[in-house]
Amino acid sequence: MKRLYGVVLIVLLVAASAAAGGGRERDEAVEEQPEATEVVSDNKVVQMHYEGTLDDGTVFDSSEGREPLEFIYGVGMLIPGLEDQMEGLGVGDRKTVRVAADDAYGPYMDEALQEIPLNQMPADIDLQEGMQLVAQSPQGPIPVTVLEIREETVIIDFNHPLAGEALTFDIEVVAIRDATEEELEPFAAQMPVVPQ
Fold this sequence. Notes:
The chain is an alpha+beta fold. Among the domains are: about 45-105 and about 165-180, Chitinase A, domain 3 (Roll), CATH 3.10.50.40; about 110-155, Thrombin, subunit H. The protein has three helices and nine strands, in the order H-E-E-E-H-E-E-E-E-E-E-H. It is elongated and about 60 Å long. Residues about 1-35 have low confidence and may be disordered.
C-alpha cells in the first residue's frame, strides 16, 4: 500500500509540475501583447486616400483610381491645415477636414501678378490665356497661370491656383510606418533638435 501511495504521489507531482509549466506558458502567452497600433505622428510615413473639394462641391483633386498619397508626417509635405488635423489618426480612420484658405494655399494676393515681356518667355511654348505653367523659384517648382497675353507682355499669376479657397478633404488613412533615416535626411535641417 505504501508503494501505491508513493507511485500515486510521484504521478501527482509530475502532473502538478506539468500543470505549473503549462500555466507558465499561458502566462507568457498572456504577457505577449500585440504591437501598439500605429497612429499618425511626427516622422511617420503615412498613406492616405483623399478627395479634395471646394465650397461649391467641385472636386479639385482625388486619389480615386490611383495609389494612395504617401508623405512623411510632420515635415511640411502637406498643407498645414490638413496635416494639423491628422495627428492621432490610425489605419482605417476616416475624417472630413475643412481647411481655411490661410491654412491651405494662403490668400489670393494681387502683388503676385507679374507683367513679363513676351521675349522672356520660352519660345517653344504656344501661350494661351488660362494655361498653367511651372516656374522655378528658390523654394522649388511652382504652378503659375497665364492670365492675359498683351502685344509685348504677358500677365502671369504666381498665386497658387487654389489661393484664397477654403478646402474640404475626405481622407482615409490606409497605412502608417516609421520613416527611415534615408527618408528623413532631406528634412533634417528643419527638424527641431531635442536635447538628450
